[in-house]
Each structure stands twice: as structure tokens, then as C-alpha cells.
Amino acid sequence: MTKKTSLTDVAELAGVSRTTVSYVLNHVTTIHISEKTRQRVLDAARELHYHPNASARSLAQQRTLTLGLVLCTSHNRLRTDAFLPAVLYGVSSITAPAGYRMLVQVLEEDATSPDTYINLVHEARIDGIILAGVRSDDPQLPKLRAENFPVVIWGQLPGNDFPFVDVDNVRAAQMAVEHLVSLGHQRIACITNTSLRSHESADRLRGYQTALRAHDLPLDDSLVGYGNHSAYSGFEAMRSLLALSERPSAVFAASDVMALGALRAARDAGLRVPHDLALVGFDDVQFAEYVVPSLTTVQVPAQAIGATAARMVLDIIQTGNRPAPILLETELVIRESCGAQL
């Protein structure tokens, strides 16, 4: 019968103590261990095919070694969201090497029992939590604050002082619309990506309005269409905009999924994008480069958002420090749909 590799075996091969091996493999950051020693332990564990027992590690650290990722969103968005997978990959790219599992909890935006995720905390099933899509008036937030539980928000949340990671949605949307203005467009429409109760959606609409004001262009409520995450809602919003007596010459869609629906509606109406109608999206999801015409869009670093949120919450767990909010950079990726290449 083959002997099971032990912590002692790893320590002997690495030439260090069992305690040092435990610190390295359990990702303890409060004890200083040189990078050379740390790498020697990792190499020895890999050579011996040694994997720490998850339950033992959890007991040793008095932690669950699990992070909660709570998505306050609609099932409609989950079915159609092309952005979320990259964020999830970003989170796991940090949690997995750190020895943490990720527990994903989906909570409907209008759920009547919004205490689902607070139960994860009270039942001691997670060590920290990343909240996405949560509203400022969520009654569970003050409880998390009172309990000093490690929390990081994906997205800005006015009125709360939790650490967060996001992009400047106002500035990014303004950049997209100002690009359309620079191409000579004056009648520019906007299709929101979801309800304006979402701070993300409201901020992107505000960026659109800011750009128009900056160039002395009138704000026309009839030029604002309202999407609801799905390409179909973008399609319907675009059909309404094209039915106006004076249709827009350009459209800013506040997500690439909205832009995809808008593109189909324009084609159904016999319009050529970008020759008859310019279009700019937001997010730069994978399909944006491959639709015809390829989509000009605001590139949002989805994977970096997930990775940054995970690093922040792990830092809170391990050190107790509260990290400063982080705004990541966006970039306008110019392709065919805006008409700049014509």
C-alpha cells in the first residue's frame, strides 16, 4: 500500500520546518517568509503531489476558505449577459491560487426576501463577500457594516462607505458620445442597458447627457430608449427610435448586448450601419469584434474587475485593513460601426 505524502515529507524535501510548510501552503501573509523559501516549499509540494486537506486548513485558520459572490440581478440578465463570465474568471484567478472556493448566490433584483446573502454571514459559511448590483437602500448593508464583515462592492454605491471596484461610467459614456459628436452627429440617441434604479445604468445615461450639454446639443427625452439587459429589449428600443418623425443619425447603446439588438433593428428597417446610422456600444464583450460591422465600443476590463474585487476582500480578511476604492481605466475601441473609417 502506497504511503500517503505528509506535511513532514514536504518539510524534509524543502529543508524547512513543518510550521513553515503550513504557513506557505495555507497562504498566511502575516508571517514573513522569503520568496526563495516559499518557492522551495511550493516546488517540494508539487514534486510530492501533496495537497493540503481543505478541512484541516479551514480549522487551522479558523476560516471557511470560501468567498461569497452575490449577484443581485435578474435571471433575464444571467441568460444573456456576455460580460459576467469574464468577471467570474477574474475572481477565480485570485481565489483559487489563494486556496479559496467561490460560492455564487443569485438574488433577484426585486426579491421580497433580500436577506439571503446575510444568512451566509450569520451561518459562518463564508469569510468575505463581493456584492454586485446591490442597491443603496438594501437593509442588509447596515448589518454588514455593524458586524465589520469583509465586504467589497462591485460598482459604486452612493451613500455607503464600503470599499468598491468599478469604472467611471459617467466619463466612459461621455467619451463614447463625444466621439460621435466629433464625427459630425448632432441627433444622437441613447439606449440604456437596464432600469435607471441601477447606478451603473443611471451613470451611463448621465454621461450621455453630459456630452450633449458640453457641445450645446439639446436633451430630447424622445431620443432615450430603455433596455432591460436583453438584446431583444435593445431591438425594441431601437425600433421605437427609428419610428420617430426625425430619427437619430447615431445611437449610443449602454451595453454591447443592447447594441446587438439595435443593429438587428436597423437592418430590419433597411438602414446600413454605419453609412445610414452610426452605432457605439459599451463593455467590449467578445462578440463585439466579430459582428458585422464590427462594433465600436467602450472597453471595460471585466477580468480585472473580478480579480481586483477578489484581491481587495482577501486583503481585508487577512490584514483587517480597509482598501481604498478603485476605479479602473476604460478605453474607446474604434471599429467599423461608428463610421470613423468611412
Q: How does this structure look, described?
A:
- Helix 1 packs across helix 3.
- This protein has helices spanning 7-14, 18-25, 35-47, 54-61, 75-80, 84-95, 116-122, 141-146, 169-182, 199-214, 231-242, 256-268, 302-319; strands spanning 66-72, 101-107, 128-132, 151-154, 164-167, 188-192, 224-226, 250-253, 278-283, 296-299, 326-328, 331-333.
- The strands form 2 sheets. The chain has a 6-stranded parallel β-sheet with strand order 2-1-3-4-5-11, with helices on both faces. A 6-stranded mixed β-sheet has the order 7-6-8-9-10-12, with helices on both faces.
- The protein is 41% helix and 16% strand.
- With 342 residues, the chain is of the alpha/beta class.
- The relative contact order is 0.12.
- It is elongated and about 80 Å long.
- The protein contains 13 helices and 12 strands.
- The longest helix is centred in the last third of the chain and has 18 residues, at 302-319.
- The protein folds into 3 domains: 7-61, lambda repressor-like DNA-binding domains (434 Repressor (Amino-terminal Domain)); 66-167 and 302-328, Response regulator (Rossmann fold); 169-300, Rossmann fold.
Q: Give the ordered list of helices and strands.
A: HHHHEHHEHEHEEHEHEHEHEEHEE
Q: What's the CATH first level of the largest domain?
A: Alpha Beta
CA radius of gyration is 24 Å
From the N-terminal CA to the C-terminal CA, the straight-line distance is: 73 Å
Globular, elongated, flat, extended or rod-shaped: what is the shape? elongated
CATH homologous superfamily grouping of the largest domain: Response regulator
Instruction: Provide the number of structural domains.
Output: 3
